[in-house]
Amino acid sequence: MKFTVDQQGLTDGVNWVSRSLSTRPIKTELLGIVIDATGDEVFLSGSDLETSSKAHFSADITTKGKVLVPGKLLAEICRSLPNKPITIALDGTRVLVTSGSAKFTLPTLSIDEYPHLPELPEATGVVSSDTFAQAVAQVAIAAGRDDSLPTLTGVHIEISEETMTLAATDRYRLAVREFNWQPSQPGVSTTALLRGRTIAEAAKSLVGSKEVALSLAPTVSSDRLAGFAGSGKTMTSRMLDGTFPPYRHLLDQNIISTAVVEVAPFLDSVRRVALVTDKTVPLRLEFNGTSLSLEAGAGEDAQATEAIDILLTGEAISIAFNPTFLIDGLQAVGTTFVQISFTGSNKPAILMGKNEASGNALENYRYLLMPMRYAS
After folding, report:
1. How many of the other CB atoms lie within 10 Å of CB of 237?
2. Which of 139, 323, 337, 354 has its CA 20 to 30 A from that of 21?
3. pTM, whole model, 2 decimals?
4. CATH number of the domain at 125-248, please?
């Protein structure tokens, strides 16, 4: 095997595939990336048996061949090389990587022991890569990190014809985003639960593609695979078991007051006041008329207070939040203003974006945040 390819194309493909490699695989071969040079293209693949990634790109192939090399090392080498053509050649049981005067020699792994990777399911539909990446980023922040509760580490996908809804929760917050997409067949209706980290990495890495094709295996399928594809890259991942908790009733509650706040100064104030807190200490917020007072710390501990201008409609309200979760939500709305709807001082608040203070709230994204208790 021997081929030459530009550095950017190789690095892009290797980075994509290396994301699916496990740091502690059940077999040594899963540390590797398969390089298959055939025709006028090179195909790369890697897997941890739960997630599998593939990439292909054009190359000047002198000799066809297939080899398995350590994936993380190959990725580091590719990223470190200058922007010059890279030649990869198999020499006995070693692989030579050459770029200008830089030369690396890599060992090979047993390709005969490498597992057969699943094929991408039939495409369910396509969506703009920018829309998909933004929506996933807005929702994945609320996915849980506790692997002992796998259902809560996922992003729930619900498809109803031309509308896709993403949702995630860690029990302390809930993020929901709706957007339009193009199903491959009319009348499509299905659900899936995917690992939050997996879908977030896939969405972010496929931004270079114009569109992302999403493939969801039928609910009757034994494999329960989901797949993403765009611009020479594909990824398949097994869906999570379990049922995502019902959440829509949480978004339709009796609102007693609504505050409109400019996001940038609000974020700055939260970050400053939160300097005296940690994840277990709440940030206290007093919404009253045209003012919002932020306060943290008590007793002999460090304390901080600050006030900013707001527009409040309805009752004055006193509430406390985890400052990190509040910051996540304010950043996720992605607009100049945020509308915070309250159902009570000890009940969840709902954040929605607004492009203008007097405009309508954007209801396609909602970030529900549970309050924290604090000593008054």
Report:
1. 23
2. 139
3. 0.92
4. 3.10.150.10
